[in-house]
Amino acid sequence: MSDFRALTPTYSVAPQISIEDVVAAKAAGFAMIVNNRPDGEDPGAPQGDAIAHACAAEGMAYAAIPIGHSGFSHPQLDALDTLLGDATGPVLAYCRSGTRSTHLWALTRARAGDDIDMLCDAAANGGYDLSALRPMMDALAG
Protein backbone atom coordinates (compact mmCIF):
# COMPACT_ATOMS: atom_id res chain seq x y z
CA MET A 1 0.00 0.00 0.00
CA SER A 2 1.40 3.37 -1.02
CA ASP A 3 2.32 5.88 1.67
CA PHE A 4 2.98 9.06 -0.33
CA ARG A 5 3.16 12.18 1.87
CA ALA A 6 2.86 15.55 0.16
CA LEU A 7 5.16 18.24 1.55
CA THR A 8 4.25 20.65 -1.26
CA PRO A 9 2.02 20.29 -4.31
CA THR A 10 5.09 19.26 -6.31
CA TYR A 11 7.20 17.28 -3.80
CA SER A 12 6.19 14.23 -1.79
CA VAL A 13 8.12 11.69 0.23
CA ALA A 14 7.58 8.06 1.12
CA PRO A 15 9.08 5.21 3.06
CA GLN A 16 10.67 2.46 0.94
CA ILE A 17 8.56 1.91 -2.16
CA SER A 18 7.81 -1.30 -4.01
CA ILE A 19 7.64 -1.92 -7.73
CA GLU A 20 3.84 -1.71 -7.42
CA ASP A 21 4.21 1.71 -5.80
CA VAL A 22 5.88 2.97 -8.98
CA VAL A 23 2.68 2.15 -10.88
CA ALA A 24 0.66 3.89 -8.15
CA ALA A 25 2.97 6.92 -8.30
CA LYS A 26 2.44 7.21 -12.05
CA ALA A 27 -1.33 6.94 -11.56
CA ALA A 28 -1.10 9.66 -8.87
CA GLY A 29 0.54 12.01 -11.38
CA PHE A 30 4.19 11.87 -10.32
CA ALA A 31 6.68 12.55 -13.12
CA MET A 32 9.86 11.51 -11.28
CA ILE A 33 11.00 9.26 -8.47
CA VAL A 34 14.12 10.13 -6.48
CA ASN A 35 15.81 7.33 -4.55
CA ASN A 36 17.63 8.52 -1.43
CA ARG A 37 18.63 5.01 -0.28
CA PRO A 38 22.07 3.57 -0.93
CA ASP A 39 21.88 0.22 -2.72
CA GLY A 40 22.48 -2.63 -0.29
CA GLU A 41 21.20 -0.74 2.74
CA ASP A 42 18.40 -3.30 2.95
CA PRO A 43 19.11 -6.23 0.65
CA GLY A 44 15.46 -7.34 0.93
CA ALA A 45 14.13 -4.05 -0.45
CA PRO A 46 13.93 -3.30 -4.17
CA GLN A 47 17.29 -1.87 -5.20
CA GLY A 48 17.75 1.23 -7.33
CA ASP A 49 18.07 -0.60 -10.64
CA ALA A 50 14.73 -2.36 -10.10
CA ILE A 51 12.98 0.93 -9.28
CA ALA A 52 14.70 2.64 -12.23
CA HIS A 53 13.51 -0.13 -14.56
CA ALA A 54 9.95 0.14 -13.22
CA CYS A 55 10.05 3.93 -13.70
CA ALA A 56 11.23 3.51 -17.30
CA ALA A 57 8.41 1.05 -17.95
CA GLU A 58 5.94 3.66 -16.68
CA GLY A 59 7.51 6.52 -18.62
CA MET A 60 8.70 8.24 -15.45
CA ALA A 61 12.05 9.85 -14.74
CA TYR A 62 14.27 8.29 -12.06
CA ALA A 63 17.26 9.66 -10.18
CA ALA A 64 19.34 8.44 -7.25
CA ILE A 65 20.82 10.72 -4.61
CA PRO A 66 21.91 8.18 -1.99
CA ILE A 67 22.25 9.43 1.57
CA GLY A 68 24.19 7.11 3.84
CA HIS A 69 25.43 7.31 7.41
CA SER A 70 27.80 10.17 6.60
CA GLY A 71 24.85 12.56 6.34
CA PHE A 72 24.19 15.36 3.89
CA SER A 73 26.59 17.17 1.58
CA HIS A 74 26.42 20.21 -0.66
CA PRO A 75 26.66 18.02 -3.80
CA GLN A 76 23.53 16.19 -2.65
CA LEU A 77 21.73 19.50 -2.10
CA ASP A 78 22.92 20.65 -5.53
CA ALA A 79 21.66 17.44 -7.12
CA LEU A 80 18.18 17.75 -5.63
CA ASP A 81 18.03 21.45 -6.48
CA THR A 82 18.84 20.65 -10.12
CA LEU A 83 16.33 17.80 -10.27
CA LEU A 84 13.56 19.94 -8.81
CA GLY A 85 14.38 22.76 -11.21
CA ASP A 86 14.30 20.42 -14.20
CA ALA A 87 11.28 18.33 -13.12
CA THR A 88 8.40 18.19 -15.59
CA GLY A 89 5.86 17.39 -12.88
CA PRO A 90 5.50 16.33 -9.26
CA VAL A 91 8.42 14.47 -7.64
CA LEU A 92 8.24 11.56 -5.21
CA ALA A 93 11.38 10.92 -3.13
CA TYR A 94 11.86 7.89 -0.91
CA CYS A 95 14.24 6.34 1.60
CA ARG A 96 13.73 3.83 4.44
CA SER A 97 11.22 5.98 6.33
CA GLY A 98 10.97 9.18 4.28
CA THR A 99 13.03 11.13 6.82
CA ARG A 100 16.21 11.51 4.74
CA SER A 101 14.12 12.53 1.73
CA THR A 102 12.36 15.14 3.86
CA HIS A 103 15.64 16.39 5.36
CA LEU A 104 17.34 16.67 1.98
CA TRP A 105 14.40 18.67 0.63
CA ALA A 106 14.28 20.94 3.71
CA LEU A 107 18.02 21.66 3.58
CA THR A 108 17.86 22.34 -0.16
CA ARG A 109 14.90 24.68 0.20
CA ALA A 110 16.38 26.46 3.26
CA ARG A 111 19.57 27.10 1.30
CA ALA A 112 17.42 28.51 -1.52
CA GLY A 113 15.88 31.00 0.90
CA ASP A 114 12.47 29.44 1.58
CA ASP A 115 10.85 30.34 4.89
CA ILE A 116 12.16 27.84 7.43
CA ASP A 117 9.05 27.90 9.60
CA MET A 118 6.97 27.03 6.54
CA LEU A 119 9.36 24.18 5.69
CA CYS A 120 9.04 22.85 9.25
CA ASP A 121 5.24 23.08 9.06
CA ALA A 122 5.15 21.28 5.71
CA ALA A 123 7.34 18.49 7.07
CA ALA A 124 5.21 18.22 10.23
CA ASN A 125 2.07 17.93 8.11
CA GLY A 126 3.75 14.94 6.44
CA GLY A 127 4.64 13.41 9.80
CA TYR A 128 8.30 14.50 9.97
CA ASP A 129 9.96 16.58 12.70
CA LEU A 130 12.69 18.98 11.56
CA SER A 131 13.49 20.44 14.98
CA ALA A 132 16.89 18.70 15.20
CA LEU A 133 17.71 19.93 11.69
CA ARG A 134 16.73 23.54 12.40
CA PRO A 135 20.26 24.81 13.28
CA MET A 136 21.62 23.44 10.01
CA MET A 137 18.72 24.95 8.08
CA ASP A 138 19.32 28.32 9.73
CA ALA A 139 23.03 28.15 8.88
CA LEU A 140 22.30 27.35 5.24
CA ALA A 141 19.78 30.17 5.02
CA GLY A 142 22.21 32.63 6.60
TrEMBL record:
Residues 3-111 form the Beta-lactamase hydrolase-like protein phosphatase-like domain. InterPro entries: BLH_phosphatase-like, Prot-tyrosine_phosphatase-like, Rhodanese-like_dom_sf. Pfam families: BLH_phosphatase (PF04273). One of its GO terms (molecular function) is hydrolase activity. SUPFAM superfamilies: Rhodanese/Cell cycle control phosphatase. NCBIfam families: TIGR01244 family sulfur transferase. This is TIGR01244 family protein. It comes from Sphingopyxis terrae subsp. ummariensis.
